[in-house]
Specification:
There is one protein chain. This protein is α+β, with helices and mostly antiparallel strands. It is about 35% helix and about 20% strand. The protein is rod-shaped.
Length: about 325
């Protein structure tokens, strides 16, 4: 229960002869409205103190504990002097309760003092009120049901563990590739594959020729594999990324590497033709296919220190 101090009202009035009494007088009146409420509704507890003009009530606090009642608000007290010289002071307290049944607001004491410093004690009356339940009054309009037990949510911990494992595994793989791609030997040169790049490229070209994709009409697959062979060769030969770059990006890298003009132009011609077949659904003739294959072989020859064996010579029309 909240504790609210009430204003101490001390009225000093000069008594006129017609308002002098032999003895100080005090009257305490209480009222409660409404006397019947629904649980949680507010009600107004009114306290009226009527005293002679030679009496003042001492400061008091509204009781902290009023059983099951709760103090919501206090209205500032008002006071006025009647024609008979008596002083009427009015207090209003707003209460509520969340209990049901017939409840009682207990009484509490109020002390007064006189001009002669004598003390007068008074007591408020007990007040009863009937508090009704909403369910008893209107029934279960909301079809309320008893509370159910705790709901056990399904655990997806295994899924989060799997996702975390995949992320860590993928990150570790790409980190391993990046470290191996950027490792240097003691002399500072990039690490070379165990086999020379041209040897790997020539072997892949022979396998592509043996696959005989052109005769079966798989031009797009042929140009895709041939483009990958050349990109992997350039990547392994010069140590820059080529598989994940566009043709324009590769040409920019060629200029940055200061490659010979013939190498740059030959590479540009092949990659442009390959892009037409892969992305524009261009269908080359057999002569154009052989020409593009020879361009790749010529690029490998131009960039290889030692010449390939005779079996790896260009295809002749």
């Amino acid at each position: 229960m909240k504790k609210f101090p009430l204003l101490f009202i001390l009225l000093l009035a000069v008594p006129s002869p017609e308002f002098l009494w032999a003895d100080p007088t005090v009257a305490i009146q209480t009222d409660l409205q409404p006397r019947e409420i629904t649980i949680g509704d507010p009600m107004v507890y009114q306290l009226t103190l009527v005293t002679s003009n030679d009496v003042a009530h001492k400061p008091f606090f509204f009781p902290e504990k009023l059983d099951s009642f709760e103090l919501l608000a206090i209205t500032s007290p008002t006071a006025h002097i009647g024609k008979d010289g008596r002083i009427t002071t009015l207090y209003q307290f707003t209460l509520t309760t969340f209990s049901t049944g017939t409840l009682t607001i207990p009484s509490f004491p109020i002390e007064f003092s006189t001009l002669t410093s004598s003390a007068i004690a008074g007591q408020t009356d007990t007040m009863t009120i009937k508090v009704k339940s909403i369910l008893e009054e209107k029934g279960d309009e909301g079809n309320l049901r008893p509370l159910k037990g705790l709901f056990n949510f399904k655990s997806y911990l295994w899924l989060w563990i799997l996702i975390a494992f995949l992320i860590c595994g993928g990150g570790g793989y790409f980190l391993w590739r990046w470290l191996n791609k950027n490792r240097k030997r003691d002399d500072g040169a990039p690490l070379r594959p165990p086999r020379p790049p041209e040897e790997v490229a020539w072997e892949a070209i022979h396998n592509l020729e043996d696959a005989d994709l052109i005769s079966s009409g798989q031009h797009k697959e042929f140009y895709y594999r041939l483009s990958v062979i050349l990109r992997e060769y350039l990547e392994n030969r010069y140590g820059f990324s080529a598989l994940d770059r566009t043709t324009a990006e590769l040409m920019s890298e060629f200029r940055r590497q200061n490659f010979p003009l013939l190498l740059t132009q030959t590479s540009r011609n092949f990659f442009d033709n390959a892009d037409l077949v892969k992305f524009a659904k261009f269908l080359p003739t057999e002569e154009e296919v052989i020409h593009d294959l020879n361009q790749v072989k010529h690029i490998i020859n131009m960039t290889t220190v030692t010449q390939p064996p005779p079996a790896q010579e260009e295809v002749k029309l």
